[in-house]
Specification:
By secondary structure, the chain is α/β, with parallel strands linked by helices. It contains eleven helices and nine strands. The protein has a seven-stranded mixed β-sheet with strand order 4-3-2-5-6-9-7, sandwiched between helices. It has a two-stranded antiparallel ribbon with strand order 1-8. It starts with 7 loop residues before the first helix and ends with a helix.
Length: about 280
């Protein structure tokens, strides 16, 4: 055990916390695994931590036991609040619980920098939250790092390299402004209820400045258009960007007959700069 609190199965049974599909819930009950996820986030003793969708609090307990300075747990499911309150009582002044939707909460109102995000994200909002955290108005962002659990195929899309089937908008978005790597893989059977797919934990460390210069809005537009028709040659997929798109592609060393999945991040950034 990582703390004197009851096992998670006992907590779930006592509070009647069956996982709800509508909330994208799959509970991770093995406290050894939640401890490993917390450890993958690095030294938390000098950081505040944002956790989204704590559920019955398995990862919350892992973060606090790992020495997190303070944890903000944002939970939409009212049923989980009493179980989280028991954890707060066991770790006085180190856990703040906020009931609500993570998409509508400003973590800066509750946390002090440096801030790290560590979460077993609800499947139904995981990608949307990641994109929001990667595309703030100002950079660097409020977070120092993100340590997040996703369905395995989403995790593989985040770290994908050019030429692979998983390579696309999510990989470029993540790798432009952070260093992303998979740090832990978890089989479906580790969860209750077991989902249909395996999961993986991705660690993203924010870069002080993006890896290559580019206008964020323009880069996003170029990448979105290129991958929306990924089987088309770039001269066709990007025709709507500029009437002389072939010449612009050639000016940065990209063959107009290439396809989106063949281009490296640096090439997309170079193309965005020529269009600005």
């Amino acid at each position: 055990m990582i703390d004197p609190l009851p096992p998670l199965r006992e907590v779930i049974a006592r509070h009647g916390l069956s996982a709800r599909k509508s909330l994208g819930q799959n509970f991770l009950l093995d406290l050894n695994l939640t401890r490993r996820i917390a450890e993958a986030a690095g030294d938390l003793s000098c950081c505040d931590v944002l956790e989204v969708g704590p559920g019955p609090g398995g990862l919350t307990r892992g973060l606090l036991a790992a020495g997190a300075r303070h944890v903000l747990a944002v939970e939409k499911d009212k049923r989980c609040l009493p179980a989280l309150a028991e954890i707060a009582a066991a770790y006085p002044d180190r856990l703040t619980i906020v009931e609500g939707d993570a998409l509508g909460i400003d973590p800066n109102a509750h946390l002090q920098p440096p801030i790290r995000v560590v979460a077993n994200l609800p499947y139904n909002i995981g990608t949307e939250l990641l994109v929001r955290w990667l595309t703030p108005h100002d950079w660097p962002p409020f977070w120092q790092s993100l340590t997040l659990m996703f369905q395995r195929e989403v995790a593989e899309r985040i770290v994908a390299r050019p030429g692979s089937k998983a390579y696309g908008r999510l990989a470029l978005l993540a790798q432009w402004r952070s260093t992303a790597r998979i740090v832990l893989r978890l089989p479906a059977r580790a969860f209750t209820p077991a989902p249909k797919v395996d999961s993986a934990v991705v660690h993203l460390a924010a870069l002080a400045v993006p890896r290559f210069p580019a206008n964020p809005q323009l880069l996003e537009r170029v990448v979105a258009m290129a991958f929306n028709q990924r089987r088309k040659m770039l001269r066709a997929a990007l025709r709507g960007l500029a009437p002389d798109i072939e010449a612009r592609l050639q000016s940065v060393g990209i063959a107009p007959t290439q396809r989106a999945e063949e281009l490296a991040l640096e090439q997309f950034c170079a193309l965005a700069r020529t269009l600005e």
